[in-house]
Amino acid sequence: MTESENVLLKVDNLKKYFPIKGGIFGNKTMKQVKAVDGVSFEVMEGETFGIVGESGCGKSTAGRTILRLLEPTEGSIYFQGKNIAELNPNEMRRLRKDIQIVFQDPFASLNPRMKVRDIIEEPLINFGVSDRREREKRVLEVADQVGLTAAQLSRFPHEFSGGQRQRIGIARALISKPKLIIADEPVSALDVSIQSQVLNLMRDLQKEFGLTYIFISHDLSVVKHFCDRIGVMYLGKMVEIAEKHSLYDDPLHPYAEALLSALPSPHPLQMKNRIILKGDVPSPSNPPSGCTFHPRCPSCMDICKTERPSLQVFRDNHAVSCHLYESTEKLAVAAGELK
Amino acid sequence: MVQKVLEVEELKVGIKDEDGGRIAIVNGINFHLHKGETLGIVGESGCGKSMTSLSLMGLLPAGVERHGGDIRLGNLNFNSFNKKDWRQIRGKKIAMIFQEPMSSLNPVYTVGAQINEMILNHERVSKKEARNRALEMLKLVGIPRPEQVLNEYPHQLSGGMRQRVMIAIALSCNPEVLIADEPTTALDVTIQAQILELMKKIQDQLHMSIVLITHDLGVVAEMCDRVIVMYAGEIVEESLVVDLFDQPSHPYTKGLLASLPDIHEQKEYLSSILGVVPAPGKMPAGCRFAPRCSFAHERCKEVPPLFEMENGSKVKCWLYEDGEAEVAAT
Question: A262 vs B192: CB contact, 8 Å cut-off?
Fold first, then answer.
């Protein structure tokens, strides 16, 4: 990543806590679930930034909080230099023209009582395009771009297969000509042969319109294929952010290492040394002290149990949040390499 | 290794429609399972792989019926079975684990009660013995603090732990055949790795045969000895797992493997299979894959038989007609 590239989105110390209500009248906040707990990253214009992690790590919550579908508890989100966490609802609504989202479940995210044409058109009405003919023209244009025929526009969502429904979802996101699309597990519900169709389509659209994607997924091979830079999340925190080759060739954080080794091998004869993590992901309402990964970490040290590590740049385009990489010698070596 | 524990011949499963007709979901498939091996059945949603597995257990949902073919387990033929016979077989000789560990465990009974139920149903043991056996099973599947977990309810456990409990229930009566229907699909990769490792370990210990149904070719590469690829209710390819990955034969298998993103290789675009799987009842005549196949030619208007290849793989495709021996359609 060179300096000259423009930062499109900068997320700084983003937090989203959900209260757990309790008490006799259910109005007392007993605890908080720290779904997203101090996440910072930057997304450059035209790139695809991937967020990976297992269920419950807060990746979807992070995606939704950026779009302020969920109100952030703390932190700032700069989109083209403007802090959108401070915008009022009306301003935010207008800004969503530039940031759109594609959801995971193409069955649940389309209104079953609306025709496909109306589903795709709705954002235009929302963003105040009053000329009906222009809207119609635009719907046809977008439908064509995602590979839907004009005849299909008069049908209802249930008449489509999963892959085609996801195309409808993409068309709806695309129609307001956004700059950034947040794709929340867009291909997880699809079969592999259809998955590749949708990924190819998203790549074509990116080239044609210079889109920037935030691609949220739990599938490491899809993320490797599709993204330029990747952030690995664990229990609401970014534990590693790196350019993809740097991450997949030499993961630094023990969690990222285990995650990559847990992938089933692509060939029966390529058996690898697998790091099997013990135990499950702890509950985000009661995270472990210090580094949240320490109870499962194979290289846990004393300091990990008490002190929370911070995300630090270890080498070019590769930041990691782990005490293993904090010792001064290592940083010095890394700094030497940088020069 | 050569002993066949399970044989399926010309299995046909269909949905009854309103006017008394039938829509075929599984259209006459043949396969067998050797002792101690893991057979993978792969295919995309709607290819009939789950219905195949449910018919092995006699658990087809209402409205769906097996209307042809034989299933033999050792010297038992499932065709003559009534409800009582099924109950004696299920869990004892052939057991199953499902995709969704939450919805397949009973939320109002403790883990212990659910394992006991299985043991008490099949074996003449006292409650106390059953409980000890249940405890042993929980230890076998690697559940931490098994004594407490026996008294806990499914909602108190995580997804991976629930799947371990499912496996413990399935294995508690030492079945010959275990059918695993997408056992790790609902789990995260790190937990998936744990469960797959566990299944391999237990298979070695108990010398079980496993039928593993999955859509994930990575899991197949990891676990299976032999693989069956299903498409639209038919077997299109059957081969050893190594051959399947090294020399896939059927155009569908080739397409499926090529559409997987490869973690070691960087391509800008993935190759994909055009079109979608045909809906049951609207199957194309001739080869069912022909409308999506880039090698389709005149001949494909006829239904191809399974051709046997030199390496022993079987392929249902006209491209392999020449020079290859045809498998007699038994």
Answer: yes
> What span, in angstroms and rounded, lies between the C-alpha atoms of A99 and A183?
11
Q: What is the pLDDT at residue B327? A: 43
- What is the interface pTM, i.e. ipTM, of the complex? 0.78
In a domain, B39, yes or no: yes
Quick: pLDDT tens for A229-268.
999 999 999 999 999 999 999 999 999 999 988 887 777 7
Average pLDDT over chain B, rounded to an integer = 88
Amino acid identity at B186: A
Residue B259 and residue B193 share a domain = no
Q: Is the pLDDT of residue A173 over 90?
A: yes
Beta carbons of A220 and B263 less than 8 Å apart: yes
Query: If we measure between CA atoms, which residue out of A19, A22, A46, A189 comes closest to residue A107?
Result: A189
Query: Is the same domain home to B95 and B226?
Result: yes
- Residues of B whose CB is below 8 A from A265: 218, 221-222
User: Which domain, by its residues, includes B276?
Assistant: 248-320
What's the number of domains chain B is made of?
Answer: 2
Burial class (CB in 10 A: 0-12, 13-18, 19+), B113: middle
Are the C-beta atoms of B8 and B29 separated by less than 8 Å?
yes
Q: What is the pLDDT of residue A105?
A: 79
Element (H, E) at B191: helix B189-206
Task: Classify residue B243: in a domain, yes or no.
Answer: no
Pick the last residue of a domain from B177, B202, B230: B230
Summarize the confidence of residues B319-330 as an average pLDDT.
56
Q: What is the CATH number of the domain that holds B220?
A: 3.40.50.300
Both B36 and B136 in a single domain? yes
